[in-house]
Task: inverse folding
C-alpha cells in the first residue's frame, strides 16, 4: 500500500523541474530576441543619424549658396537704388542710349535707362520695408519673387488663338494666372497694386520703359519681347485677359490696356505680330477710356501717343 503513495509524491518534483527548465528556455529566447532587436534598432538609428547628417551638410551647402545669392541681390538692388557706393570695377555699365520721357505737360525729356533702373530697384527696396509684405514671410526679397514670377509666366503663356474653341480652353485662359502663380502669389500682387496705388502710375511707366529698351540692362528680370507680345495680346484680345482686367481697379485696367497697345504697335513695326492682332479697335477703346477719365498724372503723354497711333493707323 505504501509503494504507490511513494511514486505519486515523486511526480510533482519532476513536473516542477520541467516547468523550471521551460521558463529558463523562454527567458533565454526573450533575452536573445531583445538583444537582437536592440542591435537592429541601434543599427537602423545609426543609419538614420548618418542620413540626417548628410542631409544637414547638403542643406548647409545650399543655405550658404542661397545666402550668397541673397547678399548679391541685395547688393545689386542697393547699388541700383543709390543706397550705397561701390568700387569702380563693380559699377554697372552706363547705357548710352537715352529713353524718351515726358513731363506732365507733354514735353519730351531725356531720361537715361540707368535712372529708370534705379527707380525700379528703389521700388523693390521700398516694398521689402513694408509691413504688409513682411506678413507673407517670403524668405527672400520681392525682387527675387518678381524674377521667379516673370520666369513662370514666360514659360507658360496664355492662349491667344482658338480661345473660344471649347469651354475648357476659355476657362483655362480666365484662370491663367491662378493656375500658374497660385493663390498666395496672386494675393501678394493684388496687395502691391492696392497699397502702392498712389505711385503705381509712375511705376508702370518705368517698367514699360525698362521692358521695351533695346540694349542690355544692368538690372535682371526683363521679360522677352515674345513674352511681352503674348501678354499684351492676352490682355487686349482675349476673353480671359479682358475678364482679368475687369476685376482690377479702373486705373490699372486702363493703363495695362494702354501699354499693351504700345507693345503691339512695336510688334507691328518690327513685323513680329505672328497672330495678326488688329489693334485699331483698341486704339479707339483706350483713347476713349483715357480721355474720359481724370486724375492721370501723365494724361498729356497718353493722349499725344494715342493721337499719333490714330494718325498712323488712319483712325478718324
Result:
Amino acid at each position: 500500500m505504501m509503494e504507490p503513495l511513494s511514486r505519486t509524491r515523486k511526480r510533482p518534483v519532476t513536473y516542477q523541474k520541467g516547468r523550471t527548465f521551460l521558463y529558463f528556455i523562454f527567458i533565454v529566447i526573450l533575452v536573445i530576441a531583445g538583444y537582437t532587436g536592440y542591435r537592429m534598432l541601434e543599427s537602423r538609428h545609426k543609419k538614420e543619424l548618418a542620413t540626417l547628417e548628410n542631409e544637414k551638410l547638403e542643406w548647409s551647402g545650399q543655405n550658404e549658396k542661397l545666402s550668397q545669392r541673397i547678399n548679391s541681390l541685395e547688393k545689386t538692388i542697393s547699388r541700383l537704388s543709390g543706397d550705397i557706393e561701390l568700387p569702380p570695377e563693380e559699377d554697372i555699365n552706363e547705357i548710352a542710349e537715352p529713353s524718351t520721357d515726358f513731363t506732365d505737360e507733354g514735353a519730351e525729356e531725356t531720361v537715361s535707362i540707368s535712372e529708370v533702373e534705379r527707380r525700379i530697384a528703389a521700388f523693390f527696396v521700398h516694398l521689402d520695408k513694408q509691413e504688409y509684405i513682411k506678413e507673407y514671410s517670403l524668405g527672400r526679397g520681392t525682387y527675387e519673387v518678381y524674377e521667379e514670377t516673370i520666369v513662370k509666366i514666360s514659360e507658360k503663356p496664355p492662349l491667344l488663338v482658338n480661345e473660344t474653341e471649347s469651354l475648357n480652353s476659355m476657362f483655362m485662359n480666365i484662370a491663367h494666372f491662378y493656375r500658374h502663380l497660385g493663390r498666395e502669389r496672386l494675393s501678394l500682387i493684388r496687395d502691391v497694386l492696392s497699397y502702392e496705388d498712389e505711385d503705381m502710375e509712375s511705376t508702370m511707366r518705368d517698367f514699360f520703359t525698362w521692358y521695351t529698351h533695346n540694349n542690355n540692362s544692368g538690372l535682371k528680370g526683363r521679360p522677352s519681347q515674345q513674352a511681352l507680345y503674348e501678354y499684351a495680346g492676352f490682355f487686349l484680345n482675349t476673353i480671359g485677359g479682358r475678364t482679368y482686367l475687369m476685376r482690377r481697379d479702373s486705373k490699372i485696367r486702363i493703363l495695362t490696356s494702354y501699354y499693351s497697345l504700345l507693345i503691339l504697335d512695336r510688334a507691328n513695326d518690327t513685323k513680329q505680330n505672328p497672330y495678326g492682332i488688329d489693334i485699331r479697335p483698341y486704339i479707339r477703346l483706350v483713347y476713349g477710356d483715357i480721355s474720359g477719365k481724370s486724375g492721370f498724372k501723365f494724361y498729356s503723354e497718353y493722349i499725344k501717343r494715342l493721337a499719333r497711333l490714330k494718325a498712323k493707323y488712319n483712325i478718324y
Q: What stands out?
A: Residues 92-312 form one domain. The two ends are 140 Å apart (CA to CA). The chain is about 70% helix and 5% strand. Residues 171 and 189 are 21 Å apart (CA to CA).
